[in-house]
Amino acid sequence: MTLKALQATSTSRNGVGTFIRQCKRLDFHYCDWAGSSRGMNLFLQHNLPRFAASHPSIEIHVSPRPHRHPVIRGHFINGTQHSICVRNLEKGQVLQKAEILRDMSGEKARRVKGGRVVGSLNEGTRGVWSPFHGAKAPSFEG
């Protein structure tokens, strides 16, 4: 019996079409008793199942943290962690903070200095411009 190989319908080239989300895990810490966790508790009951289903690549951990303010902590693939305190926020605002952590790269925020925004190790394809390039300047000899 011979086996037939499946034909590839599309081949990826240079990583086109691949996207790796930098956030690998979100931890939701809350308190059942404190009033500052009211918005977080509503978010966990109503919005979290939909949020988790729409982002299967992110691990979701929910754990109680008694007598403390609610916190969302993001763990990233480069090993860093970022925390956002969500005390006294409504469930929609908690969702926005979770989306902020979901979209973060995990890198430290750095200030872009000076004129050139895009840095490159390679020289430009056209080279460096100089006023001495181009056509010869006309002479004014009479």
User: Overall 3D geometry?
Assistant: elongated
Counting DSSP E segments of at least 2 residues, the number of strands comes to 4
| Biggest sheet statistics | 4 strands, mixed
The helix content, as a percent range, equals 10-25%
Question: What is the H-and-E element order?
Answer: EHEEEH
* Alpha-carbon distance between the two ends: 94 Å
Rg from Cα:
26 Å
Figure out the total of helices.
Answer: 2
Low-confidence stretches: none
Going by helix content, strand content and strand pairing, the class is alpha+beta
Mean pLDDT: 84
Neighbour order of strands in the largest sheet: 2-1-3-4
User: Beta-sheet strand percentage?
Assistant: 15-25%
If you had to describe this structure to a student in words, what would you say it looks like?
With 142 residues, this protein is an alpha+beta fold. The protein contains two helices and four strands; from the N terminus they run βαβββα. It has a four-stranded mixed β-sheet, with helices on one face. The longest helix has 17 residues, at 38-54. The protein is elongated. The mean pLDDT is 84.
